[in-house]
Amino acid sequence: MLGEVTVGIGLIGCGQWGLNYLRAFAELDGVQLVAACDVSPDRLREARRRNRQIRTTSEVSDLVADPKVNAVIVATQATRHYEPVVAALQAGKDVLVEKPMTTDVDEARRLRDLAKSSGRILMVGHVFRYNPAVAAIQQLLASGALGQLEYLSFTRTNLGPIRADVNVVWDLMTHDVSILLHFLNERPLWVSGHGAAYLRPETQDVAFATLGFQRGVVANIRASWLDPRKVREITLVGTSKMAFFNDLDPTEPVRIYDKGAMREPSYESFGEFKLVTRTGDVVSPPVPASEPLKNQCQHFLKAVQNRTPVLSDADDGLRVVEIIAGINRSISQNGVPESLELAPATA
């Protein structure tokens, strides 16, 4: 075990999310923030303002060549993840790349393969995997408390922020697809999507997706940059109970409803049944309060120190990219379902 070893961190991408990583890692023990890289002098100045000890550079090659850097955080625009991740892995660094791993299936596969062949850690920043409320729901599902899961519904909306590099599917739905894979531990058999571009041509700012799984489980995801309300909600319906997650509720993020429908004998006709609803208690289980991003950074740090597997690894990141690419292909075909059993290599 090398748990006491200090890990030198290099940051590539000093935009808003990169600076969030800078702050989160600075609050952890066992970390030295060594260097930051960005093409913008203004963003590099902001990184230095927030951390006086950090060295700044505009060259990725300079950062990954620094022997004091043991691990690299890639927080550039999603369409620019591939090259710096390759450079870092080839330089022998462990990597935490912001979600999605890439916006191209072939690139994602190459990154997965490079991480495995180089023996380095490649972790994808699917931050909701490290949300204690999401973890509580995953444990609830694993225990069978909801009965057999029937369907899930995800809503992720707000008025902005509007991305220039990707559409709302790559930006927001990536979160929900990652959570869904975590809950079910299986990939969907098919996906279908619809979307519309109201703000910029060819860049969907509102999208709806349906995903079908084995045993008839269906999930629906709604994502929008163009909505009057900020919503981060998940509904799960099982044969025994139902659950609800509200990421914006700090006191009761998870609620379990003892509600459902059941078949009862119909006395009007022999051998027939009628469906009746039942309503019971609503329980809000205690969920420990902690910051998901900081949890994610701590998870990565421990993996680097102890050479242990990560929860959102390169295989998991690839699965998310394949599913999101399938949703986008379906949107481009006006909702024609896409089979993911033999997914195309590119999107």
Protein architecture, described:
The protein is α/β, with parallel strands linked by helices and 347 residues long. It contains 9 helices and 15 strands. The two termini are 41 Å apart. It has 2 domains: 141 residues, Rossmann fold (3-Layer(aba) Sandwich); 179 residues, Dihydrodipicolinate Reductase, domain 2 (2-Layer Sandwich). The longest helix is centred in the C-terminal third of the chain and has 19 residues. The relative contact order is 0.16. The C terminus is likely disordered. The strands form 2 sheets. The protein has a 9-stranded mixed sheet. 32% of the residues lie in helices and 30% in strands. A hairpin with a 5-residue loop joins strand 9 and strand 10.
Please describe the topology of this protein.
Blueprint: E1 7-12, H1 16-26, E2 31-37, H2 41-50, E3 55-57, H3 60-64, E4 71-74, H4 82-90, E5 94-98, H5 105-118, E6 122-125, H6 132-143, E7 149-159, H7 168-184, E8 190-196, E9 206-212, E10 218-224, E11 226-238, E12 242-246, E13 254-265, E14 273-283, H8 292-306, H9 314-332, E15 338-339
Parallel strand pairs: 1-2, 1-4, 2-3, 4-5, 5-6, 7-10
Antiparallel strand pairs: 7-11, 8-9, 8-15, 9-10, 11-12, 12-13, 13-14
Which shape, going by the Cα principal axes? globular
Radius of gyration: 22 Å
Q: Low-confidence spans: pLDDT under 50, at least 5 residues?
A: 343-347
Query: Can you write the helix and strand succession as a string?
Result: EHEHEHEHEHEHEHEEEEEEEHHE
Count of β-strands: 15
Proportion in β-strands: 25-35%
Q: Count up the helices.
A: 9
CATH H-level superfamily of the largest domain: Dihydrodipicolinate Reductase, domain 2
- Cα-to-Cα separation, first versus last residue: 41 Å
Overall number of structural domains: 2
Helix content class: 25-40%
Indicate the CATH architecture of the largest domain.
2-Layer Sandwich
